[in-house]
Design a protein that fits this description.
It comes from Lojkania enalia. Belongs to the peroxidase family. Ligninase subfamily. Its cofactor is Ca(2+); heme b. This protein has about 400 residues and is mainly alpha-helical. The chain has a single domain, classed as Peroxidase, domain 1, CATH 1.10.520.10. It is built from 17 helices and two strands. The chain has a two-stranded antiparallel ribbon. The structure holds protoporphyrin IX containing FE (HEM) and 2-acetamido-2-deoxy-beta-D-glucopyranose (4 copies). Protoporphyrin IX containing FE binds next to α6 and α11.
């Protein structure tokens, strides 16, 4: 009881002093929960582990602070910075600035990430998951893998882990063919794609985004991605081996707030993981633990297991709060995930300004239709499910 009260006090104090509701206060609470529960401390990565502060670039400093959950020194989201191109694609002015070409990439990607309903699309969700499946093959103990583009360059789409990512793989190949000659690498296209996609979902985070990763066409080791039938301890151990601690894993699972599964149960293909697919709210959290969700809401066994784990409870509740939860995914962990396996993090360049601006509130125009879909009998890829996938109005 005592710990519960002290957590609430921490949260309230944080809330009153914070300029970005839903952002810093979550971080503070998270960092205190992580400390109190003796969840292993957040770790630094690669060159940031060894370089003295005096040798860090501004980007190196920022990422170091982000990884250490120091929000004064490294806020993980940026809602305001807008990059303006100095000239047309291919012009000398544009070539002179790393982010210029990325602005053109971001604008093109954004057109297919948001549908007419304002919700984000299948391709947007696909690239977020792709970002995870490219980078998440890294292991701190065994090495190999990481955010290196090998998912596409070494055709990892053939693996069962990656079922469902076929369409985004094809689109990503087209993008690479178009943008590589302007200097874009595959690893960066994937990770920039993921953050551009996240912010294209209404209420989605505007995650600080970096470029400059090296590509690799060496296949990443197999068996490094999670499966829905693993128990919580196995999942926690798997992610800890990627320096992602339990609290961070829980924040990352929040990505399932936008998704609609296809292959986990093909007889229910198109069924969403919460009642608002394509919207980056926090409903995924309370709905995963509720017995009273609409019948179409399809819960992954792994999400339920993680939610029920004793050390998850407080964070699951924290992330369920619409005031505090939404930024959580971004804040803590996507940046870490997106640089796993990168050797010289200190050499990356920040291009957050090229991202679309965040849509901070969203009211759907087809609430009634959505509700009746969610209560309808599951039919694989029903007409409504397909419209939802495409971000169309029901
Ligand atoms: C315990 C860990 C995880 C497991 C077992 C898991 C499993 C799954 C499964 C089975 C699907 C449905 C695929 C399909 O049937 O089409 C899915 C979708 C998705 N996952 Fe996860 N996932 C995990 C963690 C994550 C993380 C860390 C992210 C964050 C980046 C993520 C992002 C997504 C997204 C965005 C989708 C939707 C993809 C789409 O709609 O095409 N997942 N996940
Ligand atoms: C956060 O970073 C600032 C600036 O680098 C530093 O002065 C401060 O000690 C850090 N705070 C924590 C809790 O590490
Ligand atoms: C891929 O796109 C096609 C055409 O839009 C669609 O019918 C199919 O369901 C998609 N498949 C996957 C696995 O995303
Ligand atoms: C990419 O590889 C080159 C050559 O090994 C290295 O100098 C550079 O620092 C690497 N970049 C990153 C971001 O790790
Ligand atoms: C949308 O967000 C803006 C700025 O955050 C706020 O002023 C406005 O009241 C919100 N609108 C609705 C309908 O919630």
């Amino acid at each position: 009881m005592r710990t519960k009260i002290s957590m609430i006090t921490t949260l309230c104090m944080a809330a009153t002093i914070d300029a970005f509701p839903g952002m810093g206060n979550t971080l503070q609470a998270l960092s205190s929960i992580v400390k109190r529960q003796e969840i292993p401390k957040t770790e630094l990565l690669a060159d940031l582990k060894i370089l003295p502060d005096s040798e860090l670039t501004p980007v190196g400093k920022a990422i170091k602070a982000i990884l250490q959950i120091n929000r004064t020194a490294g806020p993980p989201q940026d809602f305001d910075t807008v990059y303006t191109v100095p000239g047309p694609l291919g012009s000398p002015e544009c070539k002179a600035e790393t982010c210029c070409m990325w602005k053109y990439v971001a604008d093109e990607m954004a057109t297919v990430f948001k549908g007419p309903s304002g919700r984000c699309t299948d391709l947007a969700r696909g690239v977020v998951r792709l970002g995870f499946h490219d980078a998440g093959t890294w292991s701190k103990t065994a090495g190999g893998g990481g955010a290196d583009g090998s998912f596409i360059l070494a055709q990892e789409i053939m693996r069962p882990d990656n079922r469902g990512l076929e369409n985004i793989t094809n689109v990503m190949e087209d993008w690479y063919n178009k943008w590589h000659k302007h200097g874009a690498g595959m690893a960066d296209l994937i990770q920039m794609g993921a953050t551009i996609a996240a912010v294209s979902c209404p209420l989605g985070p505007r995650i600080r985004s970096f470029v400059g990763r090296n590509d690799s066409s060496i296949p990443s080791p197999e068996g490094r991605l999670p499966e829905t039938n693993q128990d919580a301890e196995a999942l926690i151990a798997l992610f800890e081996d990627k320096t992602i601690v339990q609290g961070e894993l829980i924040s990352l699972l929040g990505a399932h707030t936008v998704s609609q599964q296809r292959f986990e149960d093909p007889s229910r293909a198109g069924d969403p993981q919460d009642s608002t697919p394509g919207v980056w709210d926090v409903k995924f959290y309370p709905e995963t633990t509720s017995d009273h969700t609409p019948q179409r809401v399809f819960k992954f066994k792994s999400d339920v297991t993680m939610a029920e784990h004793p050390r998850s409870q407080e964070l699951w509740t924290l992330f369920s709060d619409p005031e505090r939860g939404p930024g959580a995914w971004a804040q803590v962990t996507y940046i870490r995930l997106s640089i796993l396996g990168v050797e010289h993090i200190n050499n990356l360049v920040e291009c957050t300004g090229v991202l679309p601006l965040r849509v901070s509130n969203f009211t759907s125009t087809d609430e009634t239709e959505l509700e009746s879909f969610l209560e309808s009998k599951s039919a694989p890829m029903s007409e409504e499910a397909v419209k939802l996938l495409e971000g169309e109005v029901l």
